[in-house]
Amino acid sequence: MTSSSPSSPLTSLGPLEQLRAGRLGRRIPQLLVGLALYGFSMAMMLRSDLGLAPWDVLTEGLSLRLPLSFGTITVLVSALVLLMWVPLRQRPGLGTVANVFVVGIAVDLGLAALRTPSSLVLQVLLLIGGLVANGLAGAVYMGSQLGPGPRDGLMTGLARRTGGSLRLVRTGIEVVVLGIGFLLGGTVGVGTVLYAVGIGPLTQRFLPLVAVRLEARPTAPRTAAPSTPAPQSAPASTPGA
After folding, report:
1. CA distances in angstroms from 124 to 37, 38, 112, 132, listed in the order given
2. pTM of the model
3. How far is Cα 38 from Cα 32, in angstroms, rounded to an integer?
4. Which segments carry the region annotation Disordered (predicted)?
5. Does residue 5 form part of some domain?
6. How many whole angstroms separate alpha carbon 241 and alpha carbon 228?
7. Of 39, 106, 154, 182, which alpha carbon lies 20 to 30 A from 63's?
8. Chain mean position to CA 3
C-alpha cells in the first residue's frame, strides 16, 4: 500500500485493502457522518436559491420533470453513474456504495428541515455555509479512505482509459452535466460559480485535519521451500575386491 503522493494524507488502496487496513471503528462512523453532512450541505445550497453544483443542477432539473424527490433522483443518478464504472473496470468500495444511498436520504431530510430565507443576506449566508459544509463533508468522507464517490470514480476511470488529465475530464463531465441540467430548468447562479472555484481549495484545506492515517503494511516475503538434497550415490566398488 503506497501513499497517493508524498504530501497526501490518503493512501492508495483497493476495495479489499480498504477494509483490511484497520481502524474501522473510526472510519465507518466518519464515512457516514461525512456523507450525511454532504447531503445536508446540498440542501443548504438548494434552499439558498442562488445556484447549485453542476450535478445538483442536473438533479434539480430532473426533479422538475419527474414525480420524485430530489433525494430519490440523487440516488438514481448515483446508481446510474456507478453502472458506468463497469466498462471502465472501476471497483467500488464500501464508501462508494454508501454514498449512493446516504447522500440522497440526507438531502431529503435537509430539504424538509430548511426553507428559503426571505432576505438576500440570509440566502447568501446559507449559500456560503452550505459551500463550506460541503467542502468539509467531502474531506470527512474521503478521509475515511473507504472508496470514492460514484462521480469521482467515473472521473478517474475515464481519465485512465482516455489518457486525459483529471482536470480536463472533470471539466468536460461537469460542463455536460451542467448544460443538461440548465436546459431542464436547474438553478444556475452565483452559487454555481462559487462552487466551481471554491470546493477544491476547501476540501484540500480540510482533508489533512480529518483524514484517517493508515500505515502501509509491507507484504511478508515468501519463504522458499527447502530443497531436497540429492541422494548420494553408493561408493564405487574396488576392482578385484
Report:
1. 19, 19, 20, 12
2. 0.82
3. 10
4. 220-241
5. no
6. 34
7. 154
8. 17
- Do 135 and 198 meet the contact criterion of CB atoms below 8 Å apart? yes
Query: Terminal CA-to-CA distance of the chain, rounded, Å?
Result: 68
What counts of helices (H) and strands (E) characterise the chain? 10, 2
Mean pLDDT across 144-167:
85
130 exposure class (CB count in 10 Å sphere: 0-12, 13-18, 19+): buried
- Boundaries of domain holding 182: 23-210
Burial group, residue 79, by CB count within 10 angstroms (0-12, 13-18, 19+): middle
Instruction: Tell me which long-range contacts 75-82 makes (C-beta under 8 A, separation of at least 24).
Output: 75/100, 75/101, 75/103, 75/104, 75/105, 78/103, 78/104, 78/149, 78/150, 78/151, 79/150, 81/150, 81/151, 81/154, 82/150, 82/153
Residue found under cell 438533479: 59
Domain count, the chain: 1
Find out whether 70 and 141 touch, Cβ atoms under 8 Å: no
In a domain, 168, yes or no: yes
Facing residues of 12 across strands?
2
- What pLDDT does residue 219 have? 47
| Owner of C-alpha cell 471502465 | 88
Q: Is the pLDDT of residue 35 over 80?
A: yes
Spatial distance between the Cα atoms of 37 and 45, rounded to a whole number of angstroms: 12
Q: Is residue 104 part of a domain?
A: yes
Nearest to 97 by CA among 84, 79, 119, 73: 79
89 within a domain of the structure (yes/no)? yes
User: What does DSSP assign to residue 221?
Assistant: P
What pLDDT is attached to residue 163? 84
CA 78 – CA 62 distance, rounded (Å):
13
Residues 157-175 have pLDDT tens digits of 888 888 878 778 888 889 9
| Per-residue cell: 40 | 445536508
Size (the chain), residues: 241
